[in-house]
Amino acid sequence: MNRRLAFLFVITACVALVPFRAPAPLVYTPGEGWTYEPVGGEGKWRRTRAKDQMDVAQAAFEKQDYNLTLKAARYLVKTWPLSDYAPRAQYLVGRCYEAKHNDEKAFSQYQKILEKYPKSENVKEVLQRQYGIAGRFLKGQRFKLWGYIPAFRSMDRTADMFDKIVKNGPYGDVAPHAQLRIGAAREKQSHYPEAIKAYESAADRYHDRPQIAADAIYRAGIAYQKQAKTAEYDQSMAGQAIAQFTDFVTLYPDDRRVPEAQQIMTSLKAEQARGNFETAKYYEKRSKWSGALVYYNEVVLHDPNSAFAAEARKRIDTIKRRTQTARK
Fold it and tell me: Which of 88, 248, 269, 293 has its CA 20 to 30 A from that of 276?
């Protein structure tokens, strides 16, 4: 029995190792994979000149025959990679994957155009299409397993897509918006330091584009505010948020978000005052007078018109009288 199993195993292995082409309708081509060919039509889509091959691919695409377009276009790119028709063929490959709702694959195929054919006439449109794809993932579209099964969301991959768009054309039409979307992706992960870095990069690099710079500074302030709330209350992050919103209001006083920024600053200052007041009370209860004075003064400094500031002034006077009496 064991000999028979061993013999069958050897025969199966030998058959598996023998290279052969499958009969129609499924045909395997190295570098292209498995494709469907109608009986009697094997290879009829191939031509001997790049231009003629491009005609086949373009005609198939216009008929929305994306499988045929893919075969014809990929064959052109592989056979005539340096021809004038190769960039257009590569573009059609990306368009086919996008039409088939395989956005991740489409993005990578568009990326090949930008890397191999950076002077292609389709570069501007390709960047727009990459931006649209990345935007769909930012909104929650799932990445697919093996290109077929929608499985998971990933803000890491999404941020990487936007980063590639920025690097592909840092001063193009979509790059400033892509840089902002890197920050948005990181915010969705609650990775606020990375989001802030992305927004500050946008504000710095695109300072000559007021709408982008204003948006970047405002969003950086929001990210600082969110980071401040992740702990009990992070006074340093609150201070950074106030600084960002102060810059925003000063630089862009006509922006429609100014009233909202001012309200946030008021809220942040009130929270800073409360936090400093509680810290001051802690020191005062333990007779740490110098520490208590520092934090009561911070209350008055950050929010002088608040109820906390009024009480802080009273406590400052009391502590000063007490320390003066102790010295005598």
Answer: 248
